[in-house]
């Protein structure tokens, strides 16, 4: 059985993330979407909120599990008994960073491989940061995130106040 991890912050999950999740789920027997709790970052959504949104937007995919984690990705992979890490690439600038992380992960755990999927062209410009900025200024989110995520973003922005503070 081939089990893979697609890790990320998913703050919030976008159509680009959903695209990689859906395509990955067709390649592997089980896909674990690892929701990173990174104490060095200040996410807009809590880990629990991100897990809830991911569960909602992937409910139609049967071989997906959403699991929060912190610490080293290769340690999480070992805990989940996964042999593959999947990473999405939007542009060449992503590749430089992801290659370095892949090589580091392989050095730490030689039995875990990394596979890169290029983002579908219609999402190649899309990032969670861009989505949050659009939401902060009350822009239309429908072409960037699923409706359930747009609802949560609008709620969050209404409680954050001016300019996301």
Properties at a glance:
about 160 residues, Rossmann fold, five-stranded parallel beta sheet, about 40% helix, globular, magnesium, pantetheine-phosphate adenylyltransferase activity
Chain-wise SSE layout:
Elements: E1 3-8, H1 15-25, E2 30-36, H2 47-57, E3 64-69, H3 73-80, E4 84-89, H4 92-108, E5 113-118, H5 128-136, H6 147-160
Parallel strand pairs: 1-2, 1-4, 2-3, 4-5
Keywords: ATP-binding, Coenzyme A biosynthesis, Cytoplasm, Magnesium, Nucleotide-binding, Nucleotidyltransferase, Transferase
Family: Belongs to the bacterial CoaD family.
Cofactor: Mg(2+)
Strand order of the largest sheet: 3-2-1-4-5
Beta-strand content estimate: 15-25%
Give the proportion of residues in helices.
40-55%
CATH topology: Rossmann fold
Which architecture does the CATH hierarchy give at level 2?
3-Layer(aba) Sandwich
Query: Sheet bearing the most strands, described?
Result: 5 strands, parallel
Protein structure class = alpha/beta
Mean pLDDT: 93
Low-pLDDT residue intervals, each spanning 5 or more residues? none
Query: Between the first and last Cα atoms, what is the distance in angstroms?
Result: 46 Å
Order of helices and strands: EHEHEHEHEHH
CATH H-level homologous superfamily name: HUPs
What is the CATH class designation? Alpha Beta
Number of E strands: 5
* Helix count from the secondary structure assignment: 6
**Overall structural domain count:** 1
Cα-atom radius of gyration: 16 Å
Shape: globular
């Amino acid at each position: 059985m081939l089990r893979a991890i697609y890790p990320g912050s998913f703050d919030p999950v976008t159509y680009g993330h959903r695209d990689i999740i859906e395509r990955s789920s067709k390649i592997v027997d089980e896909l674990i979407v690892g929701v990173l709790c990174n104490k060095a970052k200040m996410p807009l959504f809590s880990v629990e909120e991100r897990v809830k949104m991911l569960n909602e937007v992937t409910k139609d995919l049967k071989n997906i599990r959403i699991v929060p984690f912190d610490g080293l990705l290769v340690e999480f992979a070992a805990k989940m008994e996964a042999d593959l890490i999947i990473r999405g690439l939007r542009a060449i600038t992503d590749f430089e960073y992801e290659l370095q992380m892949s090589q580091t992960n392989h050095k730490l755990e030689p039995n875990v491989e990394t596979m890169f999927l290029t983002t579908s062209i219609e999402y190649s410009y899309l990032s969670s940061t861009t989505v949050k900025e659009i939401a902060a200024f009350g822009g239309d989110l429908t072409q960037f995130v699923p409706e359930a995520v747009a609802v949560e973003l609008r709620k969050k922005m209404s409680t954050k106040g001016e300019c996301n503070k």
